Amino acid sequence: MASITIEKTKYECGQPQQLNKKWQREDVLRKTGLCVGKVDVYYRNARSDGCLVPPIRQTASIFKQPVTVYKTQEGKVKSDHKNGNQEKPKQLMWEKRLEGLRACDIDGHEFEAMELPKGLKPVGPNVDEETIIRSVATALHVSTQPVTGQTATKTLLEKNPGVFLDPKQPLVHAVNISDDDIKKQEERVALARKKLEEALNM
User: Fold this and answer.
1) Within 13 Å and on the Cβ side, how many CA atoms surround 143?
2) Is the Cβ–Cβ distance between 110 and 148 less than 8 Å?
3) For the residues 37-60, what does the mean pLDDT come to?
4) Each residue of 26-60: b (16+ CB within 10 Å) or e?
5) pLDDT score recorded for residue 187
6) Model pTM?
7) Using an 8 Å Cβ cutoff, are 161 and 125 in contact?
8) CA quadruple 7, 11, 16, 18: dihedral sign
9) CB-based contacts of 22: which residues, under 8 Å, 6+ apart?
10) Burial, 90: exposed, middle or buried (Cβ in 10 Å; 0-12, 13-18, 19+)?
11) For 54, which DSSP code?
12) CA 142 – CA 139 distance, rounded (Å)
């Protein structure tokens, strides 16, 4: 490929009239190449680069004092790296969206409502027993942590449930399980196993 020789000529800009005197016109004449004799016109701003001028301290002092600039932060965006599984935020009281809906069997008959133990007390505005059942059942089947209920005090939960409710726990107050409750449950399990054994032997 043939080399291109150019000749530059600089002079003050008088035209076009829209440009002020700070702009300089530069004509570049091509001496070699395919476009010999062609003139390229460039307009350049002759202003000084502000980045090369050191900053001046703006104080009430009569004498201007130089300022030294130290860059302490890099212009890079730091991403927040979190270890482990990323959980999506959970909506508070999502169980209330299912109020008024009942499950049905194949024939279209509604299932009977379940009765909860008397120790379970609802938490939140207008929370009925069906909502509690959905909340507790979901926590038992989905949650990977112990199901304890809402641990905040009753006063705080009634004052502002949207702030003090734990979305990872069901909408019931904290339940204290005693030794008598465990004993009664063991008796129920033993009785259910006995009935199942009798039914299988028939």
Assistant:
1) 17
2) no
3) 67
4) eeeebeeeeeeeeeeeeeeeeeeeeeeeeeeeeee
5) 94
6) 0.45
7) yes
8) positive
9) 45, 46, 47
10) exposed
11) P
12) 5
Place of tokens 């109020």: 99
Confidence of residue 17 (pLDDT cuts 50, 70, 90): low
Token look-up 């129920």 returns 188
Residue 139: per-residue pLDDT: 85
Q: Average pLDDT of 152-176? A: 82
Q: Is the pLDDT of residue 194 over 60?
A: yes
Give the pLDDT mean for 23-27. Answer: 77
Amino acid (1-letter code) at residue 163 = V
Alpha carbon of residue 53 to chain centroid: 42
Only one residue has tokens 């091509």, namely: 30
* Tokens standing for residue 170: 């069901």
Q: Which two structure tokens, joined as six digits, stand for 30?
A: 């091509």
pLDDT band, very low/low/confident/very high, at 1 (cuts 50, 70, 90): very low
Q: Say if residue 16 is preceded by a cis peptide, omega within 30 of 0.
A: yes
Q: Which of 8, 1, 12, 78 is nearest to 34 (CA)?
A: 1
